[in-house]
Amino acid sequence: MNPERELAFAALREFPVEVRRVTRAAESFNTVYRVEAAEGTFALRVGPVLRIHAEGTARAEAAWQRALVADGLAVPDVVLASSGEPMVVVNDADGRPRTCVLFTWIRGRSLRTRLGPARARMLGQLMARLHTFVLRDADVLRADKVLYWLLPDRLGDVPTHGKALSEARNSVQALIDELWTDRTPQLIHGDLTPANVIEAPGLGPVPIDFQDLVLGFPEQDISITLAAFGRRDDRTAMTEAFRDGYSTIRSWPDISDTMMSGLIVARGLHQLNLSLATATGPLPQDYLDYHGTRAQAWLAR
């Protein structure tokens, strides 16, 4: 058996489910398996060797999702292991620990497959609902830095663009410092992009993949979603629709265009640094040029 599948089966033995079939469903930073069991269908998330999140993230993720489920919001529930813990840690073939979490499976289609202004509006409403459920005490990372994952800063290593990227990081860090002054952060999803929302029959849009949750502010969560619209030709219409949807549930944050633009730049730098730190080979030059050009445009504003 493939070592990764062996790892998945080893993890599943720690949960109170009678497994019938396991198939790989997705692979990016984590590997996700669809698990068909006597008790239903589940999603097993197998974490990578590299840890970029705080030690308490899985517990915080489980606590927030279970609280949202109890409050009536459609989100995947976390299945507790037989030990009562929300995750299990199993060693891979090389003896390296891997954190695994089991969720209920959400049947449906990714929101990004038919994304347009109407679904951007739905996404705005969904984010606003999450923001009304305020939790402030969690052992997770704080998004008070441009680069808040547990990774080295590699922005300066990018050929041609390193200086601009580093200067842009410093510039938007000043805005983040301002945003965080004399305020108390709350848990935010941290990656509520269309790729992390499922349109589920009978349930509507369902948020998934809470692993990137951090302590931050709604403005930062919003900027992460708006950054996901960045390369679309209709990004202005998408942003307006998202804001309109959000505002039907709760008030849009009182934030300047400069602050929001800076937070969007910060998100791009954050994701670029993640790619630089985790890539197994050179990143595409057009990807580096895109971020370099954006950094230069921000500095020249």
UniProtKB/TrEMBL annotation:
Pfam families attached to this UniProt entry: APH (PF01636)
GO molecular-function terms, A-Z: kinase activity
Gene3D superfamilies from the UniProt entry: 3.90.1200.10
InterPro entries (alphabetical): Aminoglycoside_PTrfase (IPR002575), Kinase-like_dom_sf (IPR011009)
The entry's keywords: Kinase, Transferase
Domain Aminoglycoside phosphotransferase: 30-250
UniProt-recorded name of the protein: Ser/Thr protein kinase RdoA (MazF antagonist)
Species assigned in the record: Kribbella voronezhensis
